[in-house]
Recover the amino acids of this structure.
């Protein structure tokens, strides 16, 4: 389905169980809502699942950037308005996690629970900021193929790199991202705020998930977040790297189910 938010056409997949809590799934970079296929399938019946493509990603419009995490958060609040969901459990992987922290800062009254997957709270270092600009120039010159080649080995646990069922959809997803959107997203990643001071302000049930072999946002990042959030539960996913929901949905989905019931009890 396509929804117009803040002047941008946003593509959204929804599994509608209207009497269940809303679960907003926010994808990472340079990806789109198809990274949540196994959750759309496996969690159907547990929640009203809403999985958008952020602006610049997937099938949504890709206006010129740079984008920002705050802008993505405001897009998502407007999307929830359009879909008539007053509150949602807000879950994000990696860049999606940066958006979730911005969403909590800007729209806390809309948040029933939080899931932070394979992400971190800290901002980019000066070296990683410079790296974002180099990547943006290379993508402009050579296309998104350079990203796929560079990122695939870092996104997955080593043992999953030979698993076509995981590598084929992931590579395809990266290759179909629009250049304008990738460049806009790199600007948002580069300029994002440090979210460390946001963590102790979180008052809703929270789950922190990390693939045990995540090479991009390793276990130590997840542990630092979990200790800063009151009552947060940390779940380490075996046989998974940075893309834990794709690599081991059999371990990720039950953690979601438990969080959904914690939220329902707290309501
Ligand atoms: C992601 O997976 O969303 C990105 O790798 C995040 C980042 O580069 O900081």
């Amino acid at each position: 389905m396509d929804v117009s938010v803040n002047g941008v056409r946003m593509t959204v997949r929804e599994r509608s169980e209207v009497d269940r809590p809303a679960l907003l799934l926010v994808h990472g970079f340079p990806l789109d809502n198809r990274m949540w296929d196994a959750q759309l399938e496996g969690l159907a019946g547990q929640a009203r699942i809403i999985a958008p493509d952020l602006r610049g990603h997937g099938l949504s419009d890709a206006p010129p950037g740079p984008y920002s995490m705050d802008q993505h958060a405001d897009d998502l609040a407007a999307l929830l308005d359009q879909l008539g969901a007053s509150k949602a459990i807000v879950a994000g992987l990696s860049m999606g996690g940066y958006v979730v922290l911005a969403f909590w800062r800007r729209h806390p009254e809309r948040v029933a629970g939080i899931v932070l997957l394979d992400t971190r709270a800290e901002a980019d270092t000066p070296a990683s900021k410079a790296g974002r600009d180099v990547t943006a120039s290379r993508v402009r010159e050579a296309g998104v193929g350079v990203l796929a080649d560079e990122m695939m080995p870092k996104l997955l646990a080593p043992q999953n790199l030979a698993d076509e069922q995981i590598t084929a959809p992931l590579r395809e997803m990266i290759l179909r991202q629009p250049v304008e959107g990738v460049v806009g997203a790199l600007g948002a990643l580069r300029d994002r705020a440090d979210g460390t001071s946001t963590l102790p302000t979180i008052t809703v049930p929270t789950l922190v998930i990390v693939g045990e072999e995540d090479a991009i946002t390793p276990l130590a990042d997840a542990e630092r977040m979990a200790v800063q959030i009151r009552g947060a539960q940390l779940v380490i996913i075996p046989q998974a790297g940075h893309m834990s929901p794709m690599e081991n949905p059999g371990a990720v989905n039950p953690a979601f189910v438990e969080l959904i019931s914690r939220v329902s009890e707290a309501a």
